[in-house]
Design a protein that fits this description.
The chain is 45% helix and 20% strand. The chain contains 9 helices and 9 strands. Helix 6 (140-147) crosses helix 8.
Length: 255
């Protein structure tokens, strides 16, 4: 826990202003930003114009929008993490083989964050790109990443997690979800049937570091009309596991 005297509130507020912009809200007025962040208009104005001066935000005098320079804030993480660069060629080969979309994600708190992706056709209402986040409990990659944590870590997770129903299939019972995570640990993969979005099925496997710890997850997503649960186990799981192993081998070579 960070000591109160070490917490810089102005930095927290400035980052909140940046996070107010997203795919659904690429342009915002001063009032929009104040409302989204909980800041008063005077404070929101100061943060916005500071970001404009630094080159992270542009404005036409009424609307504000992020500029490409904001990508620098995440580039240091992505460049230090060799996983996306290593994984991408393998994802491309996997997608070419199975003709379904594939992604790699890592766990950040109680969410999965996409760090690499190769799509085929659009099968979700929500557009997915590098940086997209979803609740871990409702995704196949999230289940793999959660299952890779210690029992003590999971105790803390379940003590604080909000398991909200996203679709009619979403598992929101903590006892049932823990049992599912034990199965994922045992079997080495997770298969999620329309829990994040109706019509979407996904199968995921772990990517482990040199010490055997789960560092990331890789998945294949398919529309329910094209893939039964059994066909995903029979046809998609083997190449998925092969790809995960190939990524692990390349990651060890970069260390």
């Amino acid at each position: 826990m960070t000591e109160p005297t070490e917490f810089v509130q102005s930095l927290d507020r400035g980052l909140a202003v940046i996070r107010a912009f997203n795919a659904d809200n690429p342009e915002l007025t001063l009032s929009d930003v104040a409302r989204a962040t909980g800041l008063n208009r005077a404070s929101a104005r100061r943060f916005l114009h500071t970001l404009v001066e630094l080159g992270y935000v542009r404005t036409d005098g009424r609307l504000f929008a992020l500029r490409p320079k904001v990508l620098e804030l995440g580039y240091a993480y992505l460049s230090s993490l060799s996983l996306p660069e290593v994984a991408m060629p393998h994802l491309e080969q996997l997608v070419e083989k199975v003709h379904e979309s594939s992604s790699v994600s890592v766990l950040d708190g109680d969410e999965v964050v996409y760090v690499a992706r190769v799509p085929t056709r659009r099968i979700m209402r929500v557009s997915i790109a590098v940086g997209t986040r979803f609740p871990a409990y409702a995704t196949s990659m999230g289940r793999v990443l959660l299952a890779g944590q210690t029992d003590e870590w999971l105790d803390g997770y379940f003590a604080n997690a909000s398991l909200s129903r996203i679709t009619a299939n979403t598992i929101v019972d903590a006892k049932r979800l823990r049992a599912e995570l034990r199965r994922v640990r045992r079997d080495g993969y997770a298969l999620v049937d329309q829990e994040l979005e109706e019509g979407l099925r996904s199968i995921a496997a772990p990517i482990r570091d040199g010490d055997g710890r789960v560092m990331a997850a890789i998945n294949i997503s398919a529309h329910a009309s094209r893939a039964t649960l059994e066909s995903m186990r029979e046809n998609l799981l083997p190449p998925l596991l092969e790809t995960a192993a190939a990524i692990e081998e390349d990651l060890r070579a970069t260390r």
